[in-house]
Amino acid sequence: NVLIPTIRRVTSRPIKFCTINFDGNSEDCIPSGEFGRVSVQSVTNASGGVIGFAEGHNLLFSKSPPGKYFVIINPDCVPQVNSVDRMIDRINKGGIAIVEGRQWPREHPKEYDMLTGETPWASGAFQLISSKFYAEVGGMDEAYFLYLEDVDLSWRAWLNGWSVVYEVDAVVTHFSGGPFYREDIISREAFYGARNFIAISRKFFGAQGEERAIEMLLECFDKEFADLAIKEYREKLRDRVIACEITQSHPMVKILGLNQFHEILK
Description:
Low-confidence stretches: none
Distance between the termini: 38 Å
Order of helices and strands: HEEEHEEHEEHHEHH
Strand content: 15-25%
Strand order of the largest sheet: 4-7-6-8-5
Shape: globular
Number of strands: 8
């Protein structure tokens, strides 16, 4: 009763809204159908199990080829009026792979050019992506399962001659649970973020990047947590990481600290 009217207000254009349930054992959340300007297509997860963020979006892209561009949005996000139109206006300027919308009420205190909007990486919570770019780079890297696949995709955009921009006028309300995580319980975000930080460091910065990432984990977390993340990385993820070592430095592809990929603006 809320979702379709919310989607309808983001643009005056016809909308094709594709959904997939990441849990293959669950029924589809939204049935396919026509709702005015919104056409809903439910894509089946036939894996029989849980699939990751990247795998789900890659499957949607392959099963329902989009037009010139497409939007990805988290289920805990509510896009605001004309937000997609604002992103389309920006991407139509050319050479842009990804346009990230501004999250509210907790905006990322992130680095971006005030004139061009260029930013090192775009959050996967709400973004507009060029279909040409997405096909060119083979979509998201499914090795991560959850977290940092958006940083990875953004870096591959920069390294392949595209740009990534932040559009402050494209607003999305994000009901993120981050501020409410309990300190005595390790969140899924914290664990996958730590594990995947080693992976992205190795993928783009080689053996030295991997070594430094492990050092940072051991410096920033208690030994038990760090050892668990490192162990899972080595057993389940390391062999799936395809090296993309940078042969020439790029100002937008950088690691400034543990899971810090941009300057933090205050």
